[in-house]
Amino acid sequence: MNYILLTAISSAAGTFSLSLVYVYLYVLYRERHIGLWALSWIIFLLRNILFDFGVLQWKHSLWEFNLYQLLFNASGIVFVWGIYLFNNRKIHKGWLYGVVLSVVATALLALLPVPQLYKLLPTAWYGGVVLLWIGIFFLFHMEGSGFGQQVTGYAFFLWGSLTLIFPLFPGWMTWIVPLAGLLRVTIAAGTIIVYFEKTRQDLINKELPYRLFAENAADIIYRFKVGPVPVFEYISPAALTVTGYAVEEFYREGSLFGTLLHPFELPQQQEDTGPRIFSIQRKDGVAIWAEQTVTYIRDSEGKVMAVEGIVRDITSRRKLETIAERADKMNVVGQMAVSVAHEIRNPLTTVRGYLQFMAYKKGDKALESCYEILIEELDRANDIISEYLLLAKEKRAKLQHCSLNKVIHAIYPLLETLATVDKAALRLQLAPVPEVLLDENEIRQLLLNLVRNAIEAMAHRGGLVQIRTYREAEQVVLAVSDDGPGIPAHLLEQLGTPFLTTKDTGTGLGLSICYRIVHRHGAVMKVKTDPAGTEFLIYFKLTI
């Protein structure tokens, strides 16, 4: 194999590799600028095949010489067009003028009796400028600055430099042509790297909004790998806010979630992907409510491989739902009380009257005690109906500026009597507090119900009930406490629900009435309870 053929093969191989790379990229991306670049290299490859392998003898025919140069110019202008299209711009007219000038100059020189290499100067210089400009584009004007761009840009720049000088140094042709072929292979490799880097960056850019969404979401977003070793593949930073545990703790201990959510939805219930409510024990011991929605990821055999889910803190929502539920129940009770109470009260009054009449008549002494018991039961039934009617009243409190301490002192004798009957002690600790807007009658009812509940809650006789008042910031606080056994945890959230009671003879309406009164005063009632006792605190807002 002679040296000229080897040179032609190396040059064509470089161009072929470029053509193949750009055709592949066009098939992959379907973008017009890549299609133009692929067309540019195909034109250049056609020039290699037709002339470097001797299919056409460009040195001995005028039209073949012009075709030889025209293909080179066409390859350059098409590639430049692709670059402008890549930048969403129209091609500059200077390039069009340049290629026309190069073609005309080459045709004129071909007619003159000058050395062959001089006839190549217009095309070589135009092509060299194009290649240098392409190199500058890849190095400085293409988005990004990866390794592939550096390789491609410098390869184009070096190829352009060689193209500019080779007509002036014909003796260098023996190594310039193979070197140009090697540079084209380098450009092919660099171009592949450029698009690998571009694809990677596009994926990062597309992933970024979703990652930012997950990282900044108030909900916990996670992916949990079920087997062979259960482990969190991802969990969002909201885990720290919701549970109190750092993300690293979840990654380190895959079973940690199982100790927080009760029950934690692992793939035992594979078809249940709807929202489920859980109680979460935070790291600081505070119990909150959470809602979880999961999706199960399965393999080709239907076996669960991973669980993707969202956990949302719904503690505030649950509180609102509890309040709404309590209000609904109160409305139902009110409607029932209005429709039933009057119908029952009238016959009860008649029966009570006749029983009194019969009791006062002289008769059997044994029946007199029975009459007393019947009258007491009728009075008790009447008291229950009265409490119903208190719930049914949709009235507005008659609020006036008055002293909370004064109201307490006024009702104190009655409260003390209640405590004495049950052998309990009653203590007042009233600090000087400013006047607030109160309905005195309703506050008396509130105090009566709370103190009665406190006395009845103390199973052992001789317990202590305390009534305190004090100022806290811009609020006046009324506190009623006992030293009973406390309220069971499962009843705390249901306090104030009508008919909810732990007493054998209770109606479950006392606290419901208290909540109504507190609501009408625009106040807030809170409960503190433990095995040492319970305290109800009512916060009244100060008014100017």
TrEMBL record:
Residue ranges of the TM segments: 6-27, 34-55, 67-87, 94-114, 120-139, 151-169
Histidine kinase domain residues: 339-544
Catalyzed reaction equations: ATP + protein L-histidine = ADP + protein N-phospho-L-histidine
Domain of life of the source: Bacteria
InterPro entries for this protein: HATPase_C_sf, HATPase_dom, His_kinase_dom, HisK_dim/P_dom, HisK_dim/P_sf, PAC, PAS, PAS-assoc_C
Molecular functions per Gene Ontology: ATP binding; phosphorelay sensor kinase activity
Record's keyword terms, sorted: ATP-binding, Kinase, Membrane, Nucleotide-binding, Phosphoprotein, Transferase, Transmembrane, Transmembrane helix, Two-component regulatory system
SMART domains for the chain: HATPase_c, HisKA, PAC
EC number(s) reported in the record: 2.7.13.3
Matching SUPFAM superfamilies: ATPase domain of HSP90 chaperone/DNA topoisomerase II/histidine kinase, Homodimeric domain of signal transducing histidine kinase, PYP-like sensor domain (PAS domain)
Enzyme class: transferase
Domain PAC: 271-326
Record-linked NCBIfam families: sensory_box
Protein name, entry field: histidine kinase
Naturally occurring in which organism (per UniProt): Propionispora hippei DSM 15287
